[in-house]
User: What shape does this take?
Amino acid sequence: MGAGESGAFLRREGLYSSLMTEWRRARDAGLLLGKPTGETVGRPSAEQAEIARLRRELQLVHAKLARTEIALTIMGKSRELLEGISGSEPDDPDVFGPGKP
Assistant: This one.
């Protein structure tokens, strides 16, 4: 289904982007948890909307922290490697290979 086809399908079914946005907000605010199919759901309260926003923000912060930790690990290993190379003797075969200066 192409980009234009999906929009046409949603319009044909009476589903508009504003309704999809409202459903996402309700889902993110936890309003849909434990609700039986077909039961009406109201708009999230200001508190529920704030909780949903903070949860999304926390997910982003956790992802950024994970990337930062990986980068720091790589930098630490790179430093160890460079220190090992700079502290080696030029004639050390382990570093430059046999017979290479």
